[in-house]
Amino acid sequence: MSAQNLADTQRLVAEFTRSIGCSLVDWFPMLAKLPVCLQPWRTYWEKIGQFHYKVYRAWWDPVKKQIDEGTAPPSFARMAFSVQKRNSPEVSKMPCILLCS
To answer: Are the C-beta atoms of residues 78 and 72 closer than 8 Å to each other?
Structure first.
């Protein structure tokens, strides 16, 4: 793991924990149904979401490549992916589905 990966992961965890309950949408979910132009908070959260996606992909892509090449050592990720892959070809596009299913 590089120093940058570690710093990005620390930032991700800090942003996530700070964000819990701090948005108006957390308290008033119906606000998410407003037109996007009336949701000034959306740009901020989309930017954070893109960063989080980038960090998770940095962890996921090398593992996925090893799994596809058949060189991945035994691991939870390899086992979960092989089980899911038999059930859905779309799994390779969605790293979070392994943890959510």
So the answer is: yes
Q: Please name the residue that has the structure tokens 């969605």.
A: 94
State phi, psi for 73 to the nearest 5 degrees: -70, 160
Contact by Cβ (8 Å): 87, 97:
no
Instruction: Give yes or no for a contact between 52 and 73, defined as CB atoms under 8 angstroms apart.
Output: no
Q: Which of 82, 83, 80 is nearest to 96 (CA)?
A: 80
CB 87 within 8 A of CB 94: no
Where residue 84 falls (left for φ over 0; alpha for ψ -120 to 50; beta otherwise) is alpha
Per-residue pLDDT of the chain (101 residues; tens, 9 = 90+): 689 988 999 999 999 998 888 888 889 999 999 999 999 989 999 999 999 999 989 888 888 899 889 898 988 888 887 777 666 555 555 555 444 44
Segment 37-43 long-range contacts (CB within 8 Å, at least 24 positions apart): none
